[in-house]
């Protein structure tokens, strides 16, 4: 009975002020699309530079015939060099894991590697003390016995990382601004709804309706607005995720993020939308539904 | 049932609505609050309902000191009080039955209780036959009956009525007063603010007269004015309906 009443109230509130509700929902959609888009772009950049994560700037791929002892000696040796912060031994097994992660969407490639994992070499990954200062380390590694290939982070990667950071910064500001707008607009719809029902609310308070019984329909209204916005944003971004990732990816193996990742983010987004709505409702009711 | 002790209410801006009010109303009493507009009648009612907090003093309603009541307990206090106003405060889109049922629905009474209580109270106020009408299809007197039904449907201990006959003609007012009297006879304490001389003089109940926020007279079986004795009913023409 009461649940039904609360739902009916919330829905009739939404219908009554359809235009302002529409405006609020649109802003939520734009904001959450930006959030979701940023998450996907971030994912795709992270994937492109996965090897260069965590300040790794030089990777020395090792010959297969080296023993563990020899590798340990090399690792200790490099660790002693100038400008070297840390040397990480990356085993063949780890290399296989990473390969799977990068090429998750190309099972034929993974099949090939899994048939003969030995084709993925072990490596030593070097973090310089200063990220940009890796050329001497690279030059010394190239001539080191037991190393068959040296790969260094190119400037392109550095600048990609930097640009990604700047972009995230911008996106964050946009999200904050739009988020504030969304909260204000939702608060506005709640205020209109309270105004439209002021007589009813007055009577409810007079006859002793519980405070939360009066408030919950309005809270729910904001949450519904936020969730509708989130659902639309997910639908929008989901259908454009591929092109976005492709557009921004530096690698040739651009791909949609895996389904599981997308679902996880979509659920988070729904929560975010609901939270925005709740916040908007809370602001809208502020001081209006006191005893 | 209701006790006010040294109560004063000063609004922001310095307007003194009531001051030095000491008042005790027992269970089952019928009390008129009389006095000109602005004398503090409505403020007293609002204070008893905890719609306002006094600037100083204490108020007990149904055994509880209500000025220190936490916010979440205020609804419980109001469930023990029925309220009737000059402007009826009915919801125009709901029928008579729905308006009365609303008061029970929003405090979470189960459906079967609503189904049995609402028709019963509508019968009490004489509107059983008009349960499906909308408020704008009723006369003023009938609308006030609906509002009384809504106030009484939860069987409150106290009924507070603020100028319940203020919008009604004298003949209709008599009917409303009969109804309030009947409700009083069920044991409900009735406090009614009014400036309707004829009604007060005809009913001869306890009269608490206010002037500029103070109680200037508290008299059992009293008349509207000090001198009116014993039963000198003012002519209908004297009804001053302009006063708020």
Kindly describe this structure.
The complex is a heterodimer of chains A (291) and B (244). In chain A, 69% of the residues lie in helices and 8% in strands. With 291 residues, chain A is an alpha+beta fold. A 4-stranded antiparallel β-sheet of chain A has the order 2-3-1-4. Chain B is of the alpha/beta class and 244 residues long. Chain B folds into 2 domains: 1-80 and 157-167 and 187-244, P-loop containing nucleotide triphosphate hydrolases (Rossmann fold, 3-Layer(aba) Sandwich), CATH 3.40.50.300; 87-155, no CATH class. In chain B, strands 6-7-8-3-9-10 form a 6-stranded mixed β-sheet, sandwiched between helices. Chain B has a 4-stranded antiparallel β-sheet with strand order 2-1-4-5, with helices on one face. In chain B, helix 6 links the parallel strand 7 and strand 8. Chain B is globular.
Taking all residues together, what is the mean pLDDT of chain B?
90
Which pair has the most extensive contact? A-B, 18 and 25 residues
Detail the poorly predicted runs of chain A: none
Count of strand segments of chain A: 4
Number of domains of chain B: 2
Which blocks of ≥5 consecutive residues of chain B have pLDDT under 50? Answer: 230-244
The computed structural class of chain B is alpha/beta
> Major sheet of chain B, described briefly?
6 strands, mixed
Report the total helices of chain B: 7
CATH class of the largest domain in chain B: Alpha Beta
Helical fraction of chain B: 25-40%
Rg measurement of chain B, Å: 18 Å
Assign the CATH superfamily of the largest domain in chain B.
P-loop containing nucleotide triphosphate hydrolases
User: What would you report as the Rg of chain A, rounded to the nearest angstrom?
Assistant: 27 Å
Q: How large is the share of residues in beta strands of chain A?
A: 5-15%
Biggest sheet: strand arrangement of chain A: 2-3-1-4
Mean pLDDT of chain A: 83
What's the CATH architecture of the largest domain in chain B?
A: 3-Layer(aba) Sandwich
